[in-house]
Amino acid sequence: MSTPVEHLEQGRSLDLEIGGMTCASCAARIEKKLNKMPGVTASVNYATEKAHVAFTDDVAPEDLVATVEATGYTAALPAPPATADQPSPDAGQQAKDADAAAWRQRLLVSAALTMPVLAMAMVPALQFDNWQWISLTLASPVVVWGALPFHRAAWTNLRHGAATMDTLISVGVSAAYLWSLWALLFTHAGMTGMRMPFDLLPSRSGAGAEPHIYLEVAAAVTTFIVAGRYFEARAKRTSGAALRALLDMGAKDVAVLRDGPAGTVETRVPIGQLQVGDSFVVRPGEKVATDGTVVTGTSAVDASMLTGESVPVEVGPGDAVVGATVNAGGRIVVRATRVGSDTQLAQMARLVEEAQSGKAEVQRLADRVSAVFVPIVIALSLVTLAAWLLTGHSATAAFTAAVAVLIIACPCALGLATPTALLVGTGRGAQLGILIKGPQVLESTRRVDTVVLDKTGTVTTGHMCVASVHAATGESAAQVLALAGALEDASEHPIGRAIAKHASQTGIELPHVEDFANHGGNGVTGVVDGHAVMAGRRSWLATQWSLTAPAELKRQADAAESEGRTPVWVAWDGEVRAVIVVADTVKDTSAQAIADMRDLELRPVLLTGDNARAAQAVAAQVGIGHEDVIAEVLPADKVDVVKRLQDSGAVVAMVGDGVNDAAALAQADLGLAMGTGTDVAIEASDLTLVSGDLRAAPDAIRLARATLGTIKGNLFWAFAYNVAALPLAAFGLLNPLIAGAAMAFSSVFVVSNSLRLRGFTPTR
Fold it and tell me: How many C-beta atoms surround the C-beta of residue 149 within 10 A?
């Protein structure tokens, strides 16, 4: 059995599971310590509780763990890859579930004990004789046990010479409790019959004023913050639900075909035992176990879970299928081509997780602020205490203002602002078939104003199809397709395959062809149902066979050529009798996609290696102006086109699908690859559109912009909250009780605001 270290490839990177973080300051401390190690570059994410670490060959993974532990936190190496007989549990998810359950238990007990304490402090009519001692009895477990995680973290940080949000909470709660305990034991606040009024604003009485007790502040602030931590833990689980759902899409077992004594038999095995080259059965309603190629059978495959597209795709022998899609039709046998971490589903999940673990530039500013914020707040609290005492106010008033400063200033919301929005946004994108490779992509989408579209395979289907059939007078289109389809069925040329496929799809049974011959790209000949049939170029028919085309067919062919389409001439028994027009057809959704781009104030530009006539015809169909068409561009020159647009001041997004688009995708400010394209193009892009539907491009930009907008909104409110609240607390205008509730609410608000991205809907 492999150990967690044996399977790691040094000189690369890994994700450490970090434990014990309670705020953005914790993440900043760990990140700083790791980055001080020679040969190490680290990014710590508070929301995902992971550290993405790149390290050189001379750094051992155990050294990374030791550094984190020396900082006062826990770290675990990634688990070994799952095997068939020993699947890897989702340790990270289990830890999050356990964390949420622990905070829930702490919240329920603390709330039950705090409510009577709060009621007696806020309603003088409930203050019976010796009520203050009952409050002490009820508040003590809350302050000691309920706030134990904060006290423990504060002590750990103190031993390492650091201060975090937990330091503020622990000091504030402890100060309120110890002040109250001193007042009860050494002043007349502990006498029978003591009554205490409740004021939302701290008392500004002089030095001789009677000291108050703040047990309700100590208990209620603890409960509020525990509640915030519980809802935060729940939100972390919810925000990662899309990624977990993506990982759960795959089949758990599979019916593999094995050779037995009596022939081939089906054997159902766990998915981990499936190997490349195995053939497996997929029955109607079952999930395709892994990526593969159909061997036998025909069916319709529902890929909506993976691509967001609701229309099933017809598949037959030779067609590729993707793991986790659902067989909606007949029984098929599939040969596995990729298994485990190589499948498209696993690659999608990996892209999403990598995006969630990164940081946008806006978050790095928040991290820098959080790292120095806590020491500044502690100093500000001491200054507030001294200022109130020096200006002649009572110790009670000074203490109250100082505690309010400590409690209100916790920077938790700053640390959650970006990661939670990224978690939800990238997860929602994965559900819609939009893969965002990293947070830096979000910044790019905000600035993009020009979208360069590769024509073939992006705006068009990339496959030759029959656009129209024109028969001479007296001939039927059905007969033309029967004879030409039968002849071309024996050809391997893409145009010939398109004609044969179209004939079959129209319900025509193709006759048998005899004496088939291929004439070097000019055309094909053969005998079909006793007719000597020829199909090919007009010039070939005229020069080789001395055949003359009818005038009406010439007009149809000329019109097709003017639109960049290809006419195929068909003759039999010595006469030209039809023209079949073949073209790379525009996708049904391309025109809507272009309209959506214009709604986003984006300028679409069509880029193609085809001739200008074909390019202009396609542009006219989808709504791109002739001035925004760049035709007859060699694959190597696509990069230069993108550079020229950038030099003119445009911020360029490139959408493509082929190997020849990879360099342009990398050059563009934002690269979007069609998921139906090549792996090279996908690797070079920033966003991947799994479905191949061009409408996903504007949807992807909308989602990325919405995610960036949510991040900025979160950061604004988190900063504004602290900027507005700190002066109020310092000037004695904020009760510590209200401060605790407001601090907890700020974190819940940021997470809730991020969760709104789950409702993002595409235009499709």
Answer: 20
Pairing of strands 652-656, 299-302: unpaired
Is residue 183 within 8 A of residue 189, CB to CB? The reply is: yes
Which tokens sit at 285? 């309603």
CB 272 within 8 A of CB 84: yes
Instruction: Give DSSP secondary structure letters for 677-693.
Output: S-HHHHHH-SEEETT--
CB neighbourhood size of 419 (10 A): 30
C-alpha span between 362 and 710 (Å, rounded):
12
Dmax over Cα atoms in the chain, in whole Å? 123
- Does the annotation mark 515 as catalytic? no
C-alpha closest to that of 713 among 417, 386, 413: 417
Q: Is the dihedral of CA 698, 701, 704, 705 positive or negative?
A: negative
Q: Which of 363, 32, 389, 375 is nearest to 206 (CA)?
A: 389
Instruction: Report CA torsion sign: 340, 341, 342, 344.
Output: positive
* Per-residue burial over 53-78, b = 16 or more CB atoms within 10 Å of its CB, e = otherwise: bebeeebebeebbebbeebbbebebb
Quick: pLDDT tens for 712-752: 888 888 777 777 888 888 888 877 667 666 766 777 788 78
Per DSSP bridges, beta strands 460-471 and 513-518 are unpaired
**C-alpha span between 528 and 451 (Å, rounded):** 49
Given the residues 99, 302, 367, 454, the one annotated as active site: 454
What would the 3-class secondary structure string for 349-378 be? HHHHHHHHHCCCHHHHHHHHHHHHHHHHHH
Q: In angstroms, rounded to a whole number, what is the distance separating the alpha carbons of residues 282 and 266? A: 11
Of 628, 640, 621, 511, nearest in space to 572 by CA = 511
What is the dihedral sign for C-alpha 84, 85, 86, 89? positive
Q: Dump pLDDT digits (tens) for 348-392.
A: 666 556 555 555 555 556 556 656 777 888 888 899 999 999 988
pTM listed for this prediction: 0.59
CA–CA distance, 299 with 316 (Å, rounded to integer): 7
